[in-house]
Amino acid sequence: MRQRITFIQKPEDSVDPENLKVTNNAISSKTLKAAREDRVTFGFDELPQELYRVLKASHELHMRWVNRNAYDTIAPLVSRLSPGLHVFYTPQRNSNNSNLLCPALRKVFGDLECLSPEQSFTSLPTERFSLSAATQYFNPLSSLNNFVTYITHKLCKTTDSECILRVTLLSSASTVDIDFDTISHALTLTAFWPIQDWDLNFKSTPGARLEVGILSVEQAVEPEELSLGGFLTVIGEDSKPSPTLFSFPARHHPTEQSFSSSFISPTGLHPTLQLRINSWEPPKKSKSCSMHVHLTLPKEIFADKYQLSDPLFLASKNLSSIRYITNPVDLEAPAYTTFLWGSSLLLELAPPKSSFKEAPWTAQIPLHLRYLLPNFDRNGQQDLEVPYPVVFWACTADEGSKFPINPFDRVNLGYEALFGRRTLFHHLNPEEKTGGLVNSLNVPVLDLGGAKRVESGTAVVVGLGFAWVLWCLFRVWRRGGYGRAKAVAGVENKKEK
Asked: Are 284 and 422 in contact (CB under 8 A)?
């Protein structure tokens, strides 16, 4: 097992190395203010048996969980995803054990609507984008309580308080990533917490390498690079913190721009998602930049790619073009007959050309709801939550720029592989709102309580109608009866004579 704990500070909060106390098996310090990233790498022999079997049948497996509570990022940890659990999966060739994945996900994370990769996952365009996994799954998981319980039970001894404390801390993380591929043959767990006060007190454990870094953001020389300086300490090997300064090219960068997201009222069965963005000024004036929005839509709601293919319609909504949409998307099926998790959508936005670049502007994305299961005693309404989208500028880097994997790189996000290798992503910050980074909808559905009254009323109306028809026939019979038939017969006999 290898562990790396990194604290990222703002320059004004930089720690004094004199306050760091290093012994042969521990490091401690006074309270420091920083963002934190923990990364733990496990070998196959350290994993539970059910996870080992799943990984043996996987070519690559990447899981991304994002907290629905708004959080601030800090370079270089600035990439964003919609809140919830994202799974990107490529099975081994000629492997028949992919059906082990969904049961394992349900056991680790709780009750997920995951049947199998063939039934619940959607395909990603690996032919064009080689960096992408083959399939994708999403669930709007709001808590990691089941995951924390599972990890505590499987990886921590009951007497190891340090392990239990570290695992319990995951429940408050803003993001948690789990990565595996056949090249590394190792499982990596990475968690991120935004800037807060920390008590620095870590001890090494036998058989595990622990590296602790306390870094702050420095001024980079190249625009595509990020620079960090500070101190690194390998517990049990270093007697004092080692100063360090390094730069690396990074694809993800922060901006000062922000956005909000909400549905326009009234919503009905065809809601419109409105993005409100506080500026349309590109982050790099000398580069080709375009603004994009990436949506992760649960199966209850979808976008119509044919509607989004009309240039005039898109222009009226401050949209430029549709860059990617999950294929296929059934436009007619109700939600309760759909097994796929949902769909993802990448749109290029068209900021209005105004002389005031700092002026707020809006873009509107038309969506459509599927029919949901009927409910009881809810007044014919069903609550639905749609995660916040990701909004970013995609800028082309200079010719010849290369982006090797850096120590803090975060890939397999579902959208970065839809762009070229020389693309820089400048992320807009979602504005905090009550209830977290989700948009709520009240969806009209059939109320079973009212349906019983409708059924009874329908039966009464049909019965009354049938009785009225019988009454009309009875009245006709009473007026004419058989005598009418005899009179007609007499008339015919006279004609024959």
From this structure: no
Q: Please state, in angstroms and rounded to a whole number, the distance separating the CA atoms of residues 244 and 171.
A: 31
The DSSP H or E segment spanning 231 is: strand 225-234
Query: Is residue 170 very low, low, confident or very high in pLDDT (cuts 50, 70, 90)?
Result: very high
Neighbours of 228 (CB within 10 A): 22
Given its phi and psi angles, is residue 154 left (phi above 0), alpha (psi -120 to 50 degrees) or beta? alpha
> For 131-140, what is each residue's pLDDT tens digit?
678 999 999 9
Q: Tell me the average pLDDT across 317-344.
A: 92
pTM of the complete model: 0.88
* 246 within 8 A of 362, measured Cβ to Cβ: no
* pLDDT confidence of residue 99: 86
355: Cβ contacts below 8 Å, ≥ 6 apart: none
Longest dimension (CA), the chain: 136
Helix H segments across 302-350?
311-316
The C-alpha atoms of residue 318 and residue 363 are separated, in whole angstroms, by 5
Strands (E) located in 78-152: 84-91, 122-123, 135-139
> Helix (H, G, I), strand (E, B), or coil: what is residue 427?
strand
Which of 89-98, 344-353, 485-494 shows the highest mean pLDDT? 344-353
Cα 304–Cα 307–Cα 310 angle in degrees, nearest 5: 145
Other residues' Cβ atoms within 10 Å of the Cβ of residue 219: 8
Q: Using CA atoms, how far apart are residues 29 and 33, in angstroms rounded to an integer? A: 11
| DSSP per-residue string spanning 370-398 | PPPPPBSSSTTEEEEEEE--EEEEEEEPP
Which of 388, 426, 431 is closest to 259 using CA atoms? 431
The rounded distance, in Å, linking the Cα atoms of 276 and 428 is 11
Rama region for 236: left / alpha / beta (φ>0; ψ in -120 to 50; rest): left
Residues near 440 by beta carbon (within 8 Å), at least 6 away in sequence? 383, 384, 385, 386
64 exposed, middle or buried (CB, 10 Å; 0-12, 13-18, 19+)?
buried
Burial of 341 per CB tally in 10 Å (0-12, 13-18, 19+): buried
Hey, what are 142's tokens? 């709001």
Cα distance between residue 418 and residue 397, in whole Å: 16
Measure the CA–CA gap between 356 and 249, rounded to whole angstroms: 32
Q: Measured between alpha carbons, how far is 289 from 393 in angstroms, rounded to an integer?
A: 6
Query: Angle at CA 60, nearest 5°, toward 55 and 66?
Result: 95
Residue 86's closest CA among 47, 31, 132, 20? 132
Distance CA 72, CA 60 (A): 29
d(C-alpha 92, C-alpha 96), whole Å: 9
Rg value, the chain, Cα: 31
